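Reference record:
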Amino acid sequence: MVFEPPVPRKYRLVLEKAVDYIAAHYQDEDISLNAVASAVNISPNHFSTIFSQEMEITFVEYLTKVRMDAARELLLKTDLRTSEIGYQVGYKDPHYFSYLFKKIHGITPKAFRSGGENEVQK
């Protein structure tokens, strides 16, 4: 996912670096706001504030979106089991992955894979 803020902003470079770090590490189940803040050399509290204000989404919401986008791609383009896809996108608990996928998309991963992608809530 490419970060393209609509206008130049004070923290653009920091956020670009953070987004790049998330893209490279979202599969790591231990990725955290603290880890990303450390990677961009900002305190976690300040990073959280900057991220939320500038991206208009919280860190956790953004990470979840990145992971779910990757999961959708894997569901459509591979024959991996749902649990394996959950592991590949950073969730150690396959049940939690399925729960979150359904909560976000309104459909289970298995139903999505078997043609339900047209029924996904936008």
